[in-house]
Amino acid sequence: MTADIRTTSPAARGRSLAGGDRRGEHPRRRGRFGVHIFLMAVSLAFLAPLLLAVYASLRPYEETAQHGYFSLPDHLSFDYYREALSDSGMGEYFKNTLIIAVPAVLITLFLASFVAFAVSRIKVRGGIVLLMFFTAGNLLPPQVLVTPLYVLFLKIPLPWWMSDSLTMYDSYWAVIIVNIGFQLGFCVFVLANFMRTLPQEILEAAIVDGAGLWTQFWRITLPLCRPALAALGTLEFTWIYNDFLWALIFISNPDKLPITSSLNNLRGQFFTDYNLLAAGSVLVALPTILVFLLLQRHFIAGLTLGSSKG
Amino acid sequence: MRSVALKTARRAGRRRSRRFTRRDLAVLVVLLGIPVLLDIVIIWGPTLASIGLSFTSWDGIGDIHWVGGENYRNLVDNYPPFWPAVRHNLLWLAFLGLIATPFGLLLAVLIDRGVRFSRFYQSTLYMPVVLSLAVVGFMAQLILGTDQGVVNTLLDNHENPIDWLGDSDLNIWMMMLAASWRHTGYVMILYLAGLKSVDPTLKEAAAIDGANARQTFFRVVFPTLRPVNVIVGVITVIESLRAFDIVYAVNKGRNGLELLSVLITDNVIGEASRIGFGSAIAVVLLTVSLGFIVTFLVQELRGARDR
After folding, report:
1. Are A1 and B269 inside 8 Å of each other by CB?
2. How far is CA B202 from CA B5, B205, B220, in A?
3. N or C: at which end does chain B have fewer Cβ atoms within 10 angstroms?
4. Partner residue opposite A263 with nearest CB, options B13, B134, B150
5. What is this structure's pTM?
6. Cα–Cα distance, B1 to A143 (Å, whole number)
7. pLDDT for residue A190 is more than 90
8. How far from B293 is each of A9, A125, B99, B297, CA to CA, in Å?
9. What is the rounded distance in angstroms from the CA atom of residue A61 to the CA atom of residue A11?
10. How far off is chain B from A91, nearest CA to CA, in Å?
11. Mutual orientation of helices B171-196 and B101-112 as an angle, nearest 10°?
12. What phi and psi, each to the nearest 5 degrees, are found at residue A161?
């Protein structure tokens, strides 16, 4: 922004009118250069661990065991990826994660947007209390909830076609529902802030045209929230995808674990092949990185409107 | 004037609520009822139950005995890992709050100045945020491990490698560095979003008044970021209290990496299954968190009223 400020300041304007005084630009350009060096260095430092994991995953164990991870490669191959996906069954774990994450994200966004709509668009009485109720809930430490939920889920029976453990415990449902409950608060908070910025006139026009509550919500408000929903969808997907604690506590059958917990399966009891683990880590990281890169533009736009405008 | 406007708005709202048809009311009750019920069953009910359980001794199977404040007394007096865990949580908070958060703000300000490749920097710096902490914990082993870890290879101390993750004086610092790696990117994105929505005419006005870049930032831009500051502050506090995955992935939170969250998990789902005792630790964590949550919400609501 320095550049913009300088060019709009009267002194700079006078200088450029006087006819291309180069001296005025030099310190600025040097400043820019310094900023670039700094940002480049930080970016590389941030990327380094990820690149290292990729590099290690492509090299055989014997080689890195002898020369360390920081050495030139003799062999490069995707063998570890094949091994991680087939022998260790990471494909199955991916499926488990999707079974949990996809419904959880969709239901959370749907329920949260209705609460936000009720609070900030049709302004139901006690809206502020409702907002506090949800937001505060999201900020509590998850460990506080662990014991009672564990006991509760053990006591809730489910029919065999819903859960082969016949209880809520050790079923996908437990993890899905806890994720929904826990993430609702954050989504309500962001969406309520976002909806407050939408012009109220659109809704009033719809009401005059005789639109019911559902139409006002589903057909008129939600389509306008697309940027915020895209940003939230990205965030929620990464959070639920990366969740570690809930699955650890509520699932006992190792076949039902999500992908993040499966990394432990790649750890041998006596010998751990770190290069295989590296391949596993890269596989775990890949989906969230891809989702972020694909939705990046919407992500920033949605956050901008949600976090501080209003 | 504003109070009059508010009152009429409120009255209008009330009038509108009477205009709901029966179908509208059904939609409202169902779609508001489900999330509220869910939040009570999943969040607030268990929270209250945890507070109740913290005054009992319970192993999860047998009877529940009321023991009053005994769990708390034991926690403070004869549970060796408690005070180290409190210390580590505070250290974590100080590290994120004084180093990682300001660093994220600095990066956001630099990128917001409109440098070239800003999209690249932005994506790279945010990248760690989307990684699972379990993956981050593993990468820490790859870099800091004793046998073939990169740092020890670079230091070329094969005979006598530094045990970055095993040494109980060193490992907490390494974990905080790894956590900051993610926290910085998250803070940066939030500030970047905040900075993008700062009214540019403010900065122009400051420039015309002769303010330099630093003055413009600290006196004009930073105060308008207050809503973001509040959010970032709370995220920092909550993240430091909640920290769990990364230390659990490295060594199950033992040998120098004790955190309150780990102690709760150990007591509650560990073999000993001391649920009452674990709940007492949870209540300590809850009390501290609630302090910050209430502060945050008061700030937020004040902001909402001003809007």
Report:
1. no
2. 28, 5, 7
3. N
4. B134
5. 0.83
6. 48
7. no
8. 43, 23, 22, 6
9. 63
10. 17
11. 40
12. -80, -10
Give CA–CA dist A106/A95, Å, rounded: 17
What are the residues whose beta carbons fall under 8 Å from the beta carbon of A43, sequence distance 6 or more? Answer: B120, B121, B124, B125
C-alpha–C-alpha distance, residues B133 and B242, integer Å:
12
- Token couple for A117: 């709509």
Segment B152-171, tens digit of pLDDT:
877 877 777 888 888 888 88
Of A47, A185, A212, the CB nearest to B24: A212
Q: What share of chain B is helix, strand, coil (3-state, %, to 5)?
A: 75, 0, 25
pLDDT digit string (tens) for A93-132?
899 999 999 999 999 999 999 999 999 888 888 888 898 8
pLDDT (0 to 100) of residue B188: 93
Contacts with A46 from chain B: Cβ below 8 Å = 124-125, 127-128, 181, 185
Within chain A, where are the H helices? 2-8, 10-17, 26-57, 61-67, 79-86, 90-120, 127-139, 143-155, 172-196, 200-208, 213-215, 222-224, 226-242, 245-250, 259-262, 274-307
B57 three-class SS: strand
- Among the partner-chain residues B31, B41, B197, the one whose CB lies closest to the CB of A309 is B197
Tokens of A295: 């939705």
Cα torsion B253, A49, A99, A150 to 10°: value is 10
Q: Which of A93, A120, A2 is nearest to B207 (CA)?
A: A2
Q: Is the dihedral of CA A67, A71, A74, A80 positive or negative?
A: positive
3-state secondary structure of A10: helix
Best residue in A147, A150, A264 to probe B by mutation, most B CBs within 10 Å?
A147
User: Apex CA A125: angle with CA A123 and CA A131, to 5°?
Assistant: 75
Between A23 and B288, the higher pLDDT residue:
B288
**Neighbouring C-beta atoms of residue A139, cutoff 10 Å:** 22
The Cα-based distances of A178 to A104, A231, B242 in angstroms read 9, 21, 17
Q: Which residues pair with B57 in a beta bridge?
A: B65
If you measure CA to CA, which chain B residue comes closest to A137? Answer: B43
In angstroms and rounded to an integer, the radius of gyration of the C-alpha atoms of chain A is 26
Give B82's contacts (C-beta < 8 A, 6+ positions apart): B75, B76, B263, B281
User: Scanning the structure block, which residue is given the tokens 């930073």?
Assistant: B222
CA distance B93 to B237: 6
Q: Are B67 and B56 in contact (CB under 8 A)?
A: yes
Q: What angle do CA B261, B264, B270 make, to 5 degrees?
A: 125
**Cα–Cα distance, B61 to B264 (Å, whole number):** 18
**Count of A-B CB contacts under 8 Å:** 323
Which residues does chain A have within 8 Å of residue B130's beta carbon, measured at their own beta carbons? Answer: 238, 242, 285, 288-289, 291-292
Beta strands in B154-292 (DSSP E): none
- Residue B290 contacts by C-beta under 8 Å, 6 or more apart in sequence? A136, A140
